[in-house]
Amino acid sequence: MYPYSLSKEGSIKIIMDLLQVRHLSKTYGSGETAVRALKNVSFSVPRGEFVAIVGESGSGKSTLLNMIGALDTPTSGKVFINEKNTFAMKEKALTIFRRRNIGFIFQAFNLIPELTVEQNMIFPLLLDHQQPNRKYLNELLAVLGLEKRRGHLPSQLSGGQQQRVAIGRALMTRPSLVLADEPTGNLDSQNSSEVLALLKDTARKYEQTVIMITHNPAIAHTADRVFQVSDGVLTDLGGCRERGDEE
């Protein structure tokens, strides 16, 4: 039975899983030198949930994120996004699906230096031969605090502002799933807090599911739920409120 929530009016809203990961494994190499980066990982994430993944360097958490985002292929297992089996798609169809349904936010920003803030944000849409929704673009620029920076180049922005542009670029296609790999790793504490709050606020506002890798326990504690990856094995640590109550 699917989980559900009750509205103030008493109506029932079914909460469907946006993401399902089933028996995912990844092995690099073979024989004695083989490295099992992921070991039979299974979990699901409902639409709109904010999930943090923690783990030591080399634990397999980045490999897991790459598999979810279909940037790498598993040795075995399946990933379903919006009930679509991503690894059953042909390469061209997968590229289009990924571009339209998944937003990526990386630690290194990966902005195009020759493009302005606005041009960087709409670039994924142009790749898909789509015209940007100007109203939505202006709304995002306002939410991100970049209205007065829309014509600036990345070199004219602070690190925090560049990460905001990267978030805007990820959200511009209205993806149902946002994958963030250490999005605050290159920022100071103040900018980290602002970017994290912004990411959570926009996820709520646009009803997006966010999966974020972080090495910072304080940042992980702000998520709805926390997963830990250790030696390729995933453990669901539960909701932060639940763990806070236990403490």
Element pattern in H and E: EEEEEHEEHEHHHEHEHEEH
CATH architecture: 3-Layer(aba) Sandwich
Name of the CATH first level? Alpha Beta
Question: What is the helix content?
Answer: 25-40%
* Coarse shape: globular
Total number of beta strands:
12
Overall domain count: 1
* Overall pLDDT level: 88
Give the end-to-end Cα distance, rounded to a whole number of Å. 30 Å
Describe it for me?
The chain has 247 residues and is an alpha/beta fold. The chain has one domain: Rossmann fold, CATH 3.40.50. Helix content is 33%, strand content 29%. It contains eight helices and twelve strands. The strands form three sheets. A six-stranded mixed beta sheet has the order 8-9-10-5-11-12, sandwiched between helices. Strand 6 and strand 7 form a beta hairpin. Helix 3 packs parallel to helix 5 and helix 5 runs parallel beside helix 6. It is globular.
Task: Give the arrangement of secondary structure elements.
Elements: E1 4-6, E2 12-14, E3 17-28, E4 35-46, E5 50-54, H1 61-68, E6 76-81, E7 84-85, H2 91-101, E8 102-106, H3 117-127, H4 134-143, H5 159-171, E9 177-181, H6 189-205, E10 209-213, H7 217-220, E11 225-230, E12 233-239, H8 240-246
Parallel strand pairs: 5-10, 5-11, 8-9, 9-10
Antiparallel strand pairs: 1-2, 3-4, 3-6, 6-7, 11-12
